[in-house]
Amino acid sequence: MGSWNKTCGLSNLHIHYGTPVYVFVLEENIKRRNYCDTTPFFKPLLLPFKSTYNDYGDGKNSHGVALPYILQALKEKLIEQPTGENPCHDIPVIRAKFNEKLFWDAVCERRLFTNNYKGEPQEVNFAMMRKDIVDYVLKNWRFPQYTASGSETTGFPDVLRDKQEVLDIVEKATKTDDHTHFGIFDIAFAKGRDNAIHRLMRGVDYRYSNLVEIRHLIYDLIKHNNRTEAESILDGHIKALFIDSFMESTRKVWTPGALEGSQNSDHLGYHILNDAINNALAEECEE
Questions:
Q1: pTM for the complete prediction?
Q2: Do 77 and 39 belong to one domain?
Q3: Which of 14, 132, 168, 240 could form a disulfide with 265 if both were Cys (CB 3.0 to 4.6 A apart)?
Q4: Is residue 29 in some structural domain?
Q5: In the predicted model, is pLDDT for residue 218 greater than 80?
């Protein structure tokens, strides 16, 4: 198959060659399918990395602090597979040779699997989201949160203002408390319970991928005096949480981009759909 456009997992817009994207690793949700939230089919790792679409379903020039940790986690947790009956497509997936290229290739051939919490194989895939779309949502999206003083709306800049406070609390906890990683992070958030980041992260649960234990990673980085990297990991996690909240508000679910093979990038259909949605919302507001 030749080149094709990917589909943005947030907007469903086409992704052309050279388009900057955020990449979210997905693990198939086999058992815990709850159609009330954003994860009935796939569980996202709420920690993206950046890439550029290469026109063949993959990314190129991938980068970001999270990327090496994601690849290392996949390398450790993947289910190894030897070459299958069709050597062109049933490619070997083994730890010794696992890298970013094998990640893209294995996902393309549907040969990348990890185990779920019951030890059952679950397919690994990814969602690409256009960077321009994600950045616009982060700039403009505000969602309601309940605080000690009542309900308020929270935006991405609001949360970033509380970031240093959380990092300070975690750093202090790593030096004074004798607990497990997760326990220390929970203590930190308990002490900062009025912190916007605490309110945002307290709902993160089993519905999402724990391929990378994000809280543990932040704790370890701070403990080893790498606060700058810990801050970058926290930034990426917060972005992912905001995107997930936006998807919940707009009734979207986490899935790999469909229509593989299509090079369609017609704008008219999107304009009609946007007009139809705006008209329907305007009528509801009038009522």
A1: 0.92
A2: yes
A3: 14
A4: yes
A5: yes
pLDDT higher at 83 or 243: 243
Q: Give bridge partners of residue 154 from the DSSP assignment.
A: 143
In tens, the pLDDT along 189-211 reads 555 456 677 777 766 667 899 99
- Long-range residue pairs from 102-106, CB within 8 A, at least 24 positions apart, any chain: 103/71, 103/74, 104/57, 104/58, 104/59, 105/58
What are the C-alpha distances in Å from 34 to residues 10, 28, 41, 207, 253?
A: 20, 13, 9, 9, 11
- Which residue segment(s) compose the domain that 12 sits in? 6-136
Q: Which amino acid is at 64?
A: G
Residues 21 and 66 in one domain: yes
Residue pair 244/26 in contact by the 8 Å Cβ criterion:
no
CA distance 250 to 242: 12
Q: How far is CA 16 from CA 23, 106, 127, in A?
A: 15, 22, 15
